[in-house]
Amino acid sequence: MNWHWLSANSGRIAELTWMHLKIALPAIVLAFLIAVPLGWAAHRFPAAREAVVVATGLIFVVPSLAMFILMPLVLGTSILSPLNVVVALTLYGIALMVRAAADAFDAVPSAVRQSATAAGYAPARRVFAVDLPLAGPGLLSGIRVVAASTISLVSVGALIGVPSLGTLFTEGFQRSFPTQIMAGIIGTILLAIIIDVALVLLGRVAMPWASRVG
Protein backbone atom coordinates (compact mmCIF):
# COMPACT_ATOMS: atom_id res chain seq x y z
CA MET A 1 0.00 0.00 0.00
CA ASN A 2 1.47 3.33 -1.11
CA TRP A 3 0.62 5.66 1.77
CA HIS A 4 2.26 8.64 0.09
CA TRP A 5 -0.10 8.29 -2.90
CA LEU A 6 -3.10 8.04 -0.56
CA SER A 7 -2.04 11.19 1.28
CA ALA A 8 -1.36 13.10 -1.94
CA ASN A 9 -4.71 12.08 -3.44
CA SER A 10 -6.89 12.30 -0.33
CA GLY A 11 -8.75 15.31 -1.75
CA ARG A 12 -9.66 13.47 -4.93
CA ILE A 13 -10.72 10.37 -2.99
CA ALA A 14 -13.00 12.56 -0.85
CA GLU A 15 -14.45 14.15 -4.00
CA LEU A 16 -15.14 10.74 -5.58
CA THR A 17 -16.72 9.58 -2.30
CA TRP A 18 -19.07 12.58 -2.40
CA MET A 19 -19.94 11.84 -6.05
CA HIS A 20 -20.61 8.23 -5.08
CA LEU A 21 -23.02 9.39 -2.37
CA LYS A 22 -24.75 11.88 -4.69
CA ILE A 23 -25.69 8.98 -6.94
CA ALA A 24 -26.44 6.35 -4.29
CA LEU A 25 -28.57 8.30 -1.80
CA PRO A 26 -31.24 9.55 -4.26
CA ALA A 27 -31.52 6.04 -5.73
CA ILE A 28 -31.98 4.48 -2.27
CA VAL A 29 -34.59 7.03 -1.19
CA LEU A 30 -36.54 6.86 -4.47
CA ALA A 31 -36.51 3.06 -4.46
CA PHE A 32 -37.93 3.03 -0.94
CA LEU A 33 -40.63 5.62 -1.68
CA ILE A 34 -41.78 3.78 -4.81
CA ALA A 35 -41.41 0.20 -3.59
CA VAL A 36 -43.28 0.56 -0.28
CA PRO A 37 -46.63 1.47 -1.93
CA LEU A 38 -46.09 -1.30 -4.49
CA GLY A 39 -45.33 -3.75 -1.68
CA TRP A 40 -48.45 -2.66 0.19
CA ALA A 41 -50.51 -3.15 -3.00
CA ALA A 42 -49.02 -6.62 -3.44
CA HIS A 43 -50.00 -7.42 0.16
CA ARG A 44 -53.46 -5.85 -0.11
CA PHE A 45 -54.38 -7.50 -3.41
CA PRO A 46 -53.11 -11.11 -3.33
CA ALA A 47 -54.32 -11.77 -6.88
CA ALA A 48 -51.92 -9.12 -8.18
CA ARG A 49 -49.06 -9.98 -5.83
CA GLU A 50 -47.29 -12.47 -8.07
CA ALA A 51 -47.52 -10.14 -11.06
CA VAL A 52 -46.10 -7.19 -9.12
CA VAL A 53 -43.27 -9.18 -7.53
CA VAL A 54 -42.34 -11.00 -10.74
CA ALA A 55 -42.53 -7.87 -12.89
CA THR A 56 -40.24 -5.90 -10.59
CA GLY A 57 -37.95 -8.89 -10.09
CA LEU A 58 -37.40 -9.16 -13.85
CA ILE A 59 -35.45 -5.91 -13.70
CA PHE A 60 -32.53 -7.90 -12.30
CA VAL A 61 -32.40 -9.94 -15.51
CA VAL A 62 -30.76 -6.92 -17.17
CA PRO A 63 -27.05 -6.66 -16.24
CA SER A 64 -26.14 -3.38 -14.56
CA LEU A 65 -23.70 -2.22 -17.25
CA ALA A 66 -26.26 -2.87 -19.99
CA MET A 67 -28.89 -1.02 -17.95
CA PHE A 68 -26.61 2.01 -17.57
CA ILE A 69 -25.99 2.08 -21.33
CA LEU A 70 -29.70 1.72 -22.14
CA MET A 71 -30.78 4.58 -19.88
CA PRO A 72 -29.62 7.42 -22.20
CA LEU A 73 -31.75 5.92 -24.99
CA VAL A 74 -34.79 5.85 -22.71
CA LEU A 75 -34.25 9.16 -20.91
CA GLY A 76 -32.71 11.15 -23.74
CA THR A 77 -29.74 12.10 -21.57
CA SER A 78 -26.01 12.17 -22.23
CA ILE A 79 -24.32 8.81 -21.72
CA LEU A 80 -22.09 10.50 -19.12
CA SER A 81 -25.02 11.87 -17.11
CA PRO A 82 -25.16 10.58 -13.52
CA LEU A 83 -28.97 10.57 -13.91
CA ASN A 84 -28.66 7.38 -15.97
CA VAL A 85 -27.06 5.58 -13.04
CA VAL A 86 -29.50 7.05 -10.50
CA VAL A 87 -32.53 5.86 -12.49
CA ALA A 88 -31.06 2.42 -13.15
CA LEU A 89 -30.15 1.93 -9.49
CA THR A 90 -33.60 3.11 -8.44
CA LEU A 91 -35.10 0.37 -10.61
CA TYR A 92 -32.78 -2.24 -9.10
CA GLY A 93 -33.66 -0.99 -5.63
CA ILE A 94 -37.37 -1.29 -6.37
CA ALA A 95 -36.81 -4.85 -7.58
CA LEU A 96 -35.21 -5.75 -4.25
CA MET A 97 -37.53 -3.76 -2.02
CA VAL A 98 -40.98 -4.72 -3.34
CA ARG A 99 -40.89 -8.30 -2.07
CA ALA A 100 -39.39 -7.19 1.26
CA ALA A 101 -42.15 -4.59 1.65
CA ALA A 102 -44.90 -7.08 0.80
CA ASP A 103 -43.50 -9.57 3.32
CA ALA A 104 -43.22 -6.81 5.96
CA PHE A 105 -46.90 -5.89 5.56
CA ASP A 106 -47.84 -9.59 5.60
CA ALA A 107 -46.16 -9.88 9.00
CA VAL A 108 -48.49 -7.34 10.62
CA PRO A 109 -50.90 -9.38 12.82
CA SER A 110 -54.42 -9.39 11.41
CA ALA A 111 -55.80 -9.12 14.96
CA VAL A 112 -54.12 -5.73 15.33
CA ARG A 113 -55.66 -4.53 12.09
CA GLN A 114 -59.08 -5.74 13.20
CA SER A 115 -58.69 -3.96 16.54
CA ALA A 116 -57.79 -0.73 14.75
CA THR A 117 -60.82 -1.05 12.49
CA ALA A 118 -63.06 -1.74 15.50
CA ALA A 119 -61.63 1.37 17.16
CA GLY A 120 -62.88 3.43 14.23
CA TYR A 121 -59.70 3.81 12.18
CA ALA A 122 -60.42 4.59 8.54
CA PRO A 123 -58.45 2.42 6.06
CA ALA A 124 -55.99 5.19 5.16
CA ARG A 125 -55.40 6.10 8.80
CA ARG A 126 -54.90 2.44 9.69
CA VAL A 127 -52.20 2.10 7.03
CA PHE A 128 -50.18 5.00 8.44
CA ALA A 129 -50.93 4.48 12.13
CA VAL A 130 -50.83 0.68 12.31
CA ASP A 131 -49.52 -1.07 9.20
CA LEU A 132 -46.47 1.09 8.50
CA PRO A 133 -45.17 1.22 12.10
CA LEU A 134 -45.56 -2.53 12.61
CA ALA A 135 -44.08 -3.31 9.20
CA GLY A 136 -41.18 -0.97 10.01
CA PRO A 137 -38.59 -3.58 11.08
CA GLY A 138 -39.16 -5.57 7.90
CA LEU A 139 -38.98 -2.43 5.79
CA LEU A 140 -35.74 -1.45 7.53
CA SER A 141 -34.21 -4.84 6.76
CA GLY A 142 -35.21 -4.45 3.13
CA ILE A 143 -33.78 -0.96 2.72
CA ARG A 144 -30.50 -2.06 4.30
CA VAL A 145 -30.14 -4.69 1.57
CA VAL A 146 -31.05 -2.11 -1.07
CA ALA A 147 -28.48 0.33 0.33
CA ALA A 148 -25.66 -2.23 0.30
CA SER A 149 -26.52 -3.29 -3.26
CA THR A 150 -26.79 0.30 -4.48
CA ILE A 151 -23.49 1.42 -2.93
CA SER A 152 -21.82 -1.52 -4.67
CA LEU A 153 -23.44 -1.00 -8.08
CA VAL A 154 -22.65 2.72 -8.24
CA SER A 155 -19.04 1.71 -8.92
CA VAL A 156 -20.04 0.00 -12.16
CA GLY A 157 -21.03 3.40 -13.52
CA ALA A 158 -17.32 4.29 -13.71
CA LEU A 159 -17.07 1.94 -16.70
CA ILE A 160 -19.21 4.36 -18.73
CA GLY A 161 -17.44 7.44 -17.42
CA VAL A 162 -19.63 8.44 -14.46
CA PRO A 163 -17.22 9.39 -11.63
CA SER A 164 -17.46 7.54 -8.31
CA LEU A 165 -15.21 5.45 -6.11
CA GLY A 166 -15.36 2.96 -8.99
CA THR A 167 -13.16 5.40 -10.91
CA LEU A 168 -10.33 4.34 -8.63
CA PHE A 169 -10.89 0.73 -9.74
CA THR A 170 -10.80 1.51 -13.45
CA GLU A 171 -7.82 3.84 -13.24
CA GLY A 172 -5.97 1.46 -10.94
CA PHE A 173 -6.45 -1.47 -13.32
CA GLN A 174 -5.37 0.62 -16.30
CA ARG A 175 -2.20 1.65 -14.46
CA SER A 176 -1.68 -1.73 -12.75
CA PHE A 177 -1.56 0.21 -9.48
CA PRO A 178 -2.89 -1.93 -6.58
CA THR A 179 -2.99 0.96 -4.09
CA GLN A 180 -5.53 2.85 -6.19
CA ILE A 181 -7.63 -0.30 -6.64
CA MET A 182 -7.55 -1.03 -2.90
CA ALA A 183 -8.48 2.58 -2.12
CA GLY A 184 -11.61 2.16 -4.24
CA ILE A 185 -12.50 -1.20 -2.70
CA ILE A 186 -11.93 -0.11 0.90
CA GLY A 187 -13.69 3.21 0.30
CA THR A 188 -16.76 1.46 -1.10
CA ILE A 189 -16.88 -1.03 1.78
CA LEU A 190 -16.52 1.73 4.39
CA LEU A 191 -19.22 3.79 2.70
CA ALA A 192 -21.58 0.81 2.71
CA ILE A 193 -20.88 0.22 6.41
CA ILE A 194 -21.46 3.89 7.28
CA ILE A 195 -24.78 3.97 5.40
CA ASP A 196 -25.87 0.72 7.05
CA VAL A 197 -25.03 2.02 10.53
CA ALA A 198 -26.89 5.25 9.76
CA LEU A 199 -29.97 3.28 8.70
CA VAL A 200 -29.84 1.15 11.87
CA LEU A 201 -29.58 4.27 14.04
CA LEU A 202 -32.41 5.92 12.11
CA GLY A 203 -34.49 2.80 12.66
CA ARG A 204 -33.84 2.93 16.41
CA VAL A 205 -34.91 6.56 16.54
CA ALA A 206 -38.01 6.04 14.38
CA MET A 207 -38.98 2.69 15.95
CA PRO A 208 -37.83 2.66 19.59
CA TRP A 209 -40.35 -0.08 20.38
CA ALA A 210 -38.61 -2.42 17.92
CA SER A 211 -35.29 -1.90 19.72
CA ARG A 212 -36.89 -2.71 23.08
CA VAL A 213 -38.47 -5.86 21.68
CA GLY A 214 -35.17 -6.90 20.11
Automatic annotation (TrEMBL):
It is found in: Cell membrane; Membrane. Its main location: membrane. One of its GO terms (cellular component) is plasma membrane. It is a multi-pass membrane protein. It comes from the Bacteria. The keyword Membrane applies. Keywords: Membrane, Transmembrane, Transmembrane helix, Transport. The chain crosses the membrane at residues 20-40, 52-73, 79-98, 145-169, 181-202. GO terms for biological process: glycine betaine transport; transmembrane transport. InterPro entries: ABC_transp_perm/SBD, MetI-like, MetI-like_sf. Pfam families: BPD_transp_1. Residues 17-203 form the ABC transmembrane type-1 domain. Belongs to the binding-protein-dependent transport system permease family. This is Choline transport system permease protein OpuBB. It comes from Corynebacterium glaucum. The gene is opuBB2.
